[in-house]
Amino acid sequence: MHIAVLPCAAGANKKTPTSLCAVWALQLLVGDRMLNVLLVIHLLIAIGLVGVILLQRSEGGALGIGGGGGLMTGRAAGNLLTRTTAILATGFFLTSLGLALIANARSQPSSIMDKASVPAAPAAPAAPAAPLSR
Questions:
Q1: Percent of the chain with pLDDT over 90
Q2: How far, in Å, CA of 109 to CA of 49, rounded?
Q3: CA 125, 128, 133: angle at the middle one, nearest 5?
Q4: Which residues lie below 8 Å from residue 109, measured CB to CB, with a gap of 6+?
């Protein structure tokens, strides 16, 4: 097991902002394994969502496969597919948010203000050169 020490732990650096310490702590808690597990769950939900949507009865006849009878007919099947679609869509939304939060936690903060250095004192303007005689 890999054990990492936070750069801001135990007062190592007094200039480290608290929010940056929170990001580093989140990176330790959410490792690559958690990202991989969440990504696999996200993909399975997406595949399931596509399948459930294709099983639903088409009212407009867009694909032409949902009009007649078949495996599931009736109002109960419609309610089941609608409820399953809603549950899978909610799961897809939540896993999307989780993946976005993990990606945000893994990125380094980049701001122009963080990269800007303090300019030195302005130099005195150079004296004008003496005119050259011809």
A1: 26
A2: 35
A3: 165
A4: 20, 23
Domain spans of the chain, in order of start: 31-63+70-108
User: Which pLDDT belongs to residue 33?
Assistant: 80
Whole-angstrom distance, CA of residue 118 vs CA of residue 97: 38
Helices 75-106 and 18-29: crossing angle in degrees, nearest 10, is: 120
What value does the mean pLDDT take over residues 17-31?
60
d(CA 4, CA 11): 16
Contact status, residue 36 vs residue 46, Cβ threshold 8 Å: no
- pTM of the predicted model, to two decimals? 0.52
Question: To 10 degrees, what angle do helices 32-55 and 75-106 make?
Answer: 150
